Amino acid sequence: MSTAASAVRTTSRVAALTLGLLTALATAAVAQAETALPRVRVLATGGTIAGAQASATDYGYKSGAYDVNTLIKAVPNLDKLAQITGEQVASIGSQDMNDEVWLKLAKRLNTVLAGADVDAVLITHGTDTLEETSYFLSLVTKSAKPVVMVGSMRPATATSADGPGNIYNGVAVAITPQAMGRGTLVELNDEFHYARNVVKTDTTSVQTFKSLNRGPAGVVHTGKVQWFQPMDKKVGTATEFSVDGLDKLPRVDIIYAHANMSPDLIDAAVKNGAKGLVIAGVGDGNMTAAALDAVTKAARSGVVVVRSTRLPMGLTLRNNEVDDDKLGLVASGELNPPKSRVLLQLALTKTTDVKRIQAMFYEY
User: Fold this and answer.
1) Strand 147-150 relative to strand 252-256: parallel, antiparallel, unpaired?
2) How much is the pTM?
3) For residues 185 and 169, what is the distance between their CA atoms, to the nearest angstrom?
């Protein structure tokens, strides 16, 4: 073999080895980059965000028509934020959310968060009861890892559907270091909120979720997160509540106060097995004299009664216009009737002592 031919062969071999090394390094770099991305599990429960219209011009739609993988694939560039995996926990409209699904979701959430392969969880959910589910999870989730819930006001098939943007921004919030230990957060329409504070305020507008008494926890635009206020109430691992071993929750009914309110519904709720009652009172948790007599009787029989308000803002103060100490009632403070029901259900898994439950309404 000539010296020239040998040189060519040697050069080719060196080039091949160099190319192979570069390819290996590039592959390793890609793998390392993928490994470096946060790992987010999406737990889907249905709702409008997974809804489908019969046609683009139909107002009505079917909730939960699309599965979790379809929702994930519909979000551009989501894989650049995090490593995303998903699973379907339920496929319902959130108007049908119930205690059974709450317990199933909470137990699955705790199991997922306990895994070493997950850094944060995003939950997709219908908006009708999103404020209640998020508060429930905020009280029973036994991990400091971030949990963010998202929904949408327009179905997945709608023109300018808001679901994909909410999922993207929800993941962005979930992977921020500041989200650790904050309890469950709710993100929609470029804002995110603490579960305790947020309420749905409009039947159809995309700007429906607001923290009326306190304001949002922060804002998020195209994945860029700005935090505002911290949370000053106990959440997550700091609470005394747990779903371990629970297969049902105590029955708690909400009764709406109004002019000429009758005590009949109060008596009926107690007769049908309610262990707790929340009165969505007028003003500062007020009700008619007949209704107040009925809840006092219920409280003396062992039913725990919480006074809240049907108004969108403000606090229901203890011993303000009603002598709660004398009558044995609980004042809800900042919590609206739906969230008062959530806390009372969990409180009743621990105690029926009214003083202790009142303390819980201050702490949580």
Assistant:
1) unpaired
2) 0.89
3) 12
Taking CA atoms, 87 is separated from 45, 68, 198, 244, in Å, by: 9, 6, 26, 21
Rg (CA), the chain: 26
Q: What is the pLDDT of residues 34-89, one digit of tens each?
A: 569 999 999 999 999 999 888 777 777 888 889 999 999 999 999 999 999 999 99
Residue 22 has pLDDT above 50, yes or no: no
- Nearest 5°: the CA angle 196, 314, 182 is 20
- Backbone phi, psi, residue 184, to 5°: -75, 135
Helices of type H across 282-334 = 289-300, 324-327
Provide CATH code, domain 38-238: 3.40.50.1170
Hey, which residues are catalytic here?
Answer: 48
pLDDT in tens, 217-238: 999 999 999 999 899 999 999 9
Which three-class secondary structure state does DSSP give residue 109? helix
Q: Tokens for 24, please give them.
A: 């290996």
Report the CATH number of the 252-363 domain.
3.40.50.40
Asked, colleague to colleague, whether 38-238 and 252-363 share their fold, the answer is: yes
Q: Any idea what the Cα angle at residue 196 is, between residues 83 and 85, rounded to 5°?
A: 15
Contact call for residues 136 and 99 (beta carbons, < 8 A): no
Q: Where are the domains of the chain?
A: 38-238, 252-363
Would strands 147-150 and 184-188 be described as parallel, antiparallel, or unpaired? parallel
**Backbone φ and ψ of 321, nearest 5°:** -110, -15
Query: In angstroms, rounded to a whole number, what is the distance separating the alpha carbons of residues 228 and 119?
Result: 23
